[in-house]
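Dig into this one:

. . .
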Amino acid sequence: MSADAQTQTRNLVAVSDLHVGDQMGLCPPDGVRLDGGGHYRPNEIQRKMWSLWESFWNDWVPHVTHGEPFDVCVNGDLIDGRKHLGGQFTLSLADMRHIAAEVLLPVANRCGRLFVTRGTPAHAGQESEDEESVAEHLGAVASTAGQYARPELWIRVGDALVHLLHHIGTAGVSSYETTAVHRELVEEFNEAARWSEEPPQFVIRSHRHRFARTQIDGVKGDKHVMFTAAVTPGWQAKTSFAFKIAGARIAPPQFGGLVIRQGDEEAYLRAQVWHMKRSEVE
């Protein structure tokens, strides 16, 4: 058996946008110790998110992977950083890196291989140095360039080629929510054809914190397949920044992740998406 066959996975879990360090991002339920000796305790929204985070890893992932081993890709924006000042419960990047490692260590211990891709410089560090530090601490698989937090990930899940990176365009109105997602899928076909490369069967993006999926029927070899592009939901509730953005300001926050799985007959994508209900009517 080749080395590729030995490491190839049948299940890939993708999550993103944890935004650790923000009052609307992920935080362990017992709180965290801060650099100055203080202690931050999560708010009600963070406690609700954490219960969903635990349900995702303890219930949903084992169910959809049929209890089989799985790899994980954390697709950017592990920490909130301090570019958009406002809402962070600490401005110490060291605090944020330590907390992100604490949040993700159980995931790293549970999965086969852990991959980390680079998020937005405003959150990850101008050269993704903060995500690089967390990824190295967690033992993420390094790229051929030696990067523990890599710009993109090409990975084969069963017989399906998958391409993951963080960024994708956004939409100001929900009627065009899948426009950028579908365009990304078509552009993958164009670039693959231009350079005589294999196109990815699954194109995974993040950044928008909202799940979206689009598909194209096609043929790979002698098999009919569905070429799919999808955007992961995030793990951050709405911030003051989100309330300013068209579309996002009225949309409920979404939490969850994706699994790409090689089934008995074909590879397919499953998504778990929770949403937070609107504010109470006064």
